């Protein structure tokens, strides 16, 4: 890898991380020595790239750092195409169409020599979600999550028992064989997983969850980590 490419890749690695990245981690990904990483980071700092941190603690790129638009590499294009294929085969109509639109937009701007990576990709995926009829458009669930609104659900258990639930939706999860709405359930006073094919009705309520943005997800993440430790 050329040195210029390596310096750019260090910035890219730091851009995608919200936590300090150690020199050891950088060296492993770049396949160079830690000494080389120390020298490269020092050079970037000397060029006024706002990298915070130091050897032994890790490095973090300032959140307000911006770079001009850069052309995608063939590997990046294949990653986007693979992700778009996955989404298109597993999501509601709106999200599936959005995934296809992203690929079309990329195809419109990349140089001609990169078109084969989009039109004839070397990667592929297929849906393993069992095709079950769903009574609720999952775009409604996504909208409630995005806006922090409560949902009123009528839900059927595996045994066929129907219950009414008021929930605070956190995330719509896509497992390999099913879709799950993860939400705080007021009835159970805990986080619960609701299989979307068992949701009989869903109504977005006019009441929001009353939490600041990101707080519900933080609580769910703490709950999930605690549950994992107990398991």
Could you outline the blueprint of secondary structure elements for this entry?
Elements: H1 3-15, H2 23-30, H3 34-46, E1 51-54, E2 58-61, H4 74-88, H5 93-109, H6 116-119, H7 138-147, E3 149-156, E4 162-174, E5 179-185, E6 190-195, E7 199-208, H8 215-230
Antiparallel strand pairs: 1-2, 3-4, 3-7, 4-5, 5-6
Helix pairs in contact: 2-3, 4-5
Molecular structure report:
- The structure is a single chain.
- By secondary structure, this protein is α+β, with helices and mostly antiparallel strands.
- It has three domains: 3-61, Arc Repressor Mutant, subunit A (Orthogonal Bundle), CATH 1.10.10.10; 74-119; 138-230, Roll (SH3 type barrels).
- The chain contains eight helices and seven strands, in the order αααββααααβββββα.
- A hairpin with a 3-residue loop joins β1 (51-54) and β2 (58-61).
- α2 (23-30) packs across α3 and α4 (74-88) runs antiparallel to α5.
- The longest helix has 17 residues, at 93-109.
- The radius of gyration is 22 Å and the shape is globular.
